[in-house]
């Protein structure tokens, strides 16, 4: 591999890293904006004494969804951030075990070769 190929590979890796970080920051901004809207909706629905929503079941369902969305989305955002900013973290080790990547293929091939009757 010559110098220009090494530089091209370095450039591609750096560009991929920048795109990954940009994707995470965009995800974070959307998360913040949407959750500010959710908090405002939740606040105004429950502080309004002349609430248009009289169905108690609907209000409970809405309250649950307005609270669950930031929590579940936040977990997804956390995983996204860990994936982007930490190359060899705990989550990546777990995902490598359960995702059918090259390491899984190597382990499976060895396992099958060790068995005589596959």
Topology readout:
Elements: H1 3-47, H2 56-85, H3 90-98, H4 102-114
Helix pairs in contact: 1-2
Describe this structure in words.
With 118 residues, this protein is mostly helical. The chain folds into 2 domains: 3-85; 87-118, no CATH class. The chain has 4 helices and no strands. The mean pLDDT is 80. The chain crosses the membrane at residues 24-46, 66-85.
Characteristic terms for this protein:
about 120 residues
Structure in a nutshell:
With 118 residues, the protein is an all-alpha fold. It has helices at 3-47, 56-85, 90-98, 102-114. 82% of the residues lie in helices and 0% in strands.
Number of strands: 0
Total helical segments: 4
Pairing-aware structural class of the strands and helices?
mainly alpha
Secondary-structure element pattern, one letter each:
HHHH
Task: Report the sheet-strand fraction.
Answer: under 5%
What is the helical fraction, as a range of percent?
Answer: over 70%
Kindly report how far apart the N and C termini lie: 40 Å
Largest sheet: none
Contiguous runs where pLDDT drops below 50 for at least 5 residues: none
Pfam families: 2TM (PF13239)
Keywords: Membrane, Transmembrane, Transmembrane helix
Transmembrane segments: 24-46, 66-85
Domain 2TM: 12-114
């Amino acid at each position: 591999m010559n110098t220009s190929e090494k530089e091209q590979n370095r450039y591609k890796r750096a560009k991929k890293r920048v795109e990954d970080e940009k994707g995470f920051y965009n995800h974070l901004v959307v998360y913040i904006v949407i959750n500010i809207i959710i908090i405002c909706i939740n606040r105004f629905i429950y502080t309004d004494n002349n609430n248009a929503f009289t169905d108690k079941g609907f209000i409970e369902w809405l309250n649950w969804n307005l609270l669950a969305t930031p929590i579940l989305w936040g977990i997804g955002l956390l995983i996204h951030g860990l994936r982007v900013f930490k190359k060899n973290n705990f989550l990546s080790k777990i995902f490598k075990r359960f995702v059918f990547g090259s390491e899984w293929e190597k382990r499976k091939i060895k396992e099958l070769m060790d068995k005589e009757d596959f």
